[in-house]
Amino acid sequence: MAVTEKAMHATNGHTSPPASKPADGYTIIGSRPVRPDGVDKVTGRAIYGADVRLQGLLYGKVLRSPHAHARILSIDTSKAEALPGVKAVVTGADLPTAADKVEDLGESAINLKYLSANILAHDKALYHGHAIAAVAAVDSHTAEEAIGFIEVKYEVLPPVMTVDDAMADNAPILLDGLRTDEMGEMGSKPTNLAKHFRHQQGDLAAGFAAAEVVVERTFRTETVHQGYIEPHTGTAQYNTDGQVTIWASTQGTFAVRNQTSEILRIPVSQIKVIPTEIGGGFGGKINVYLEPVAVLLSKKAGGKPVKLVMSRTEVLQATGPTSGSNIRIKIGADANGKITAAHAELYYEAGAFPGSPVGAAANVVLAPYAIDNLQVDGYDIVVNRPRSAAYRAPGGTNAAYATESVLNEIAEKLGIDQAHIRLINGAKQGDRRPDGVQHTEPIGLLETVQAIAESDHYNTPLTGKYQGRGIACGYWNNWGGKSSATAVLNADGTVSLNEASTDIGGSRASIAMQFAEAVGIGYEQVKPRVGDTDSVAYNDVTGGSRTTFSTGMAAHNMGVEMLSQMKERLADVWEVDAVEYADGEFSGGDNHISFQEAAALIYKTGEPLMVSSTVFPRSFGPGFSTQLADVEVDPETGKVTILRYTIAQDVGRAIHPSYVEGQMQGGVVQGIGWALNEEYIYNEKGQLLNGSLLDYRMPTALDLPMIETILVEVPYPGHPYGVRGVGEVNIVPPAGAIANAVANAIGSRMFELPMSPARVLEAMKE
Amino acid sequence: MAVVWIPALIRPLTDGKSQVEVTGENVREIVEALEALYPGVAARIVEDDRIRPGLSVAVDGAVGNKGLLEPVGPESEVHFVPAMTGG
């Protein structure tokens, strides 16, 4: 295990920036160069989705359902169409009939009928804010006025807002055709339960019988939103020759292309998606919402381009959120603190259509620990909320909150230190995940626990009456996925690196660094750009913590290949058998030239040099994180203040440590918001009451201390540089760590997120 | 022979066995071998000549990317697990 210098600075409380020097054995990797998109972003020149301007651009608006659950009896658009300046109006009737078929669209599988119905409602409105119709007009004010002239007649139905409502006898049914899928066996009756699956290992009854202590608890977590800064946008132009161009702020241009193709029945070859810069996604910018609507409007408006931009209220009402959940968990341990058995039941709200992240949650829930006897049941349940979307380690935060809370209760009952019980039970290479799959490669869970246990933070006592300290661990599987890139050697010795992984967290830099390391040139000699879907081969989304891993692997492969081809070309020119390259210099016979001189010589003496790489790694290294929170509770108001927070994470190999630390801190901050304040609040009619950032309380810089980071490096052997994905596991433990800290502070455990001031005060009365 | 870990909800089809040893050089052959021993299993794992959407196959600890064509060795361990997606 290696712990970086930055980590030591952080735990010692230093605040000065760490030195930008490479890791041992590398020339580039581990340094902290300036990101290539930095200047444009800090000077305001970067083009985001809403900045797209085109000749003859029309502006679109979407009419949304005021009801959470209603049958659409009729839609009359005639008055809107008659309004001067209106160029097109579309409804669900303008969408092609979608197949009732589940398709895997790269990152997730979804029924195409549901995908289409989420874009524009078909026969039912299934959540407050569900898109019903859309208008394109010469300006946004006219479009806004026009949607007010669309007349919709609804038959309002009772809303189904929670898993308890949805599973109740005689519950209203959201989707008439839905049947429960139990590992391929379909139920016979209409239901709101889309899926049930189970992981089972060992002998659960025997495991609980062997326990000295058994704790069983039920937890509730509320719907929360990813909270990206940039609202959703979509701009499209439908040419008269049938070619479609889409400008999108997205985590995946090819995901936009695939989804638009399926929804509108347009071949992928006729759709080009151009990425803009993206102001955050966190999983919420994988699903399409506006792009197919913009295409429909553009087609109806005679091929004029159409731009749609959501308001923040629309973002909260109709996009993104991740599942609320009910989780029951029972864990038994022997007198030494060793877990003997665990049983978890996870009930996740999918929103209006099947597809909650309960599958991932079922693996996260017990994954940090080696448990011989376990059972996990996962349930995917539709409710009248927006279709749930991925959110940074989807489903993991809810699940870990439950496990980590119960584990601390067990530790307290047995009188075992909260770090020590995690060391006793922590998973290591050779142990199995809850789904039975074995960790065949090294993993770094125990190293992260040890790093926290040895940290200055953990060894500094608390000092106040209402202060508390909590630890939690977390797991995330990460992902490989498909990546493609090309690299062109320029005559001046620079390299144009073309990839298609949209850059959310500095991936252009981390990918360019891996290429530069492989070639042995300077980072500044590599010019990375993110291309459109016609300029680079297929890439999966920037998601699943995969980009620095997989696209970086492609960059490494290209670097190796470019160097090899340069040697061959120089050998031909110099008429020597072999050419060597070291310290930035090619040599063969009596010839010695720099990389820059070699590029010029190759340019003059033959065909241009370009290399490409496509990868689809079949294995990838999982991520683990252990986190430590100190809180103080105000007994008068119930407000929880984070006093100090430290995260240790196994990052494999930190390519650009500043961006790794940024991912770690960002995930923690989102987790803190989830733990303490964030929640969707609905009235009895299922209407969202807090659809603005004034009322949907996300943490700000004023709410937070500096998040201290400890980068633990257990290199993943399946990557040329040992990279593991780092973007997601950091959001898994925060709610558990803070729940444990709050329980420690007030002497009472809470079983519902968020732990808002009112709930904390209630808990303090108990 | 390869060891297949049987998903809990289809163990009623395998007489309650959680692990079954079969021979096959790829996942397709493994599923066919399972079907021969325990009729009905294949339909729970395969749909339209592919692994059912929402399911993944893991061979020797790695979630493969070739679906039914994923190679399987004589000592391999095979799991059918819910697909996990990231954000």
Protein architecture, described:
The complex is a heterodimer of chains A (766) and B (87). Chain A is of the alpha+beta class. Chain A has three domains: 49-157 and 232-309, Aldehyde oxidase/xanthine dehydrogenase, a/b hammerhead (Aldehyde Oxidoreductase, domain 3, Alpha-Beta Complex); 325-478 and 621-765, Aldehyde Oxidoreductase, domain 4 (2-Layer Sandwich), CATH 3.30.365.10; 480-615, Aldehyde Oxidoreductase, domain 4 (2-Layer Sandwich), CATH 3.30.365. Helix content of chain A is 27%, strand content 25%. Chain A has a seven-stranded mixed sheet, with helices on both faces. Chain A has a five-stranded mixed sheet with strand order 1-31-30-29-21, with helices on both faces. In chain A, strands 12-20-19-18-13 form a five-stranded mixed sheet. In chain A, a hairpin with a 5-residue loop joins β14 and β15 (244-248). Chain B has a five-stranded mixed sheet with strand order 2-1-7-5-6, with helices on one face. In chain B, strands 3-4 form a two-stranded antiparallel ribbon. Chain B starts with a strand and ends in a 5-residue tail after the last strand. Classes of the chains: A alpha+beta (766), B alpha+beta (87).
What value does the Rg of chain B take, in angstroms? 12 Å
* Count of the domains of chain B: 1
Which strand order does the major sheet of chain B show? 2-1-7-5-6
**What's the total helix number of chain A?**
20
Number of helical segments of chain B?
A: 2
Query: Tally of extended strands of chain B?
Result: 7
Named at the architecture level, the CATH assignment of the largest domain in chain A is 2-Layer Sandwich
Q: Which class of secondary structure composition applies to the elements of chain A?
A: alpha+beta
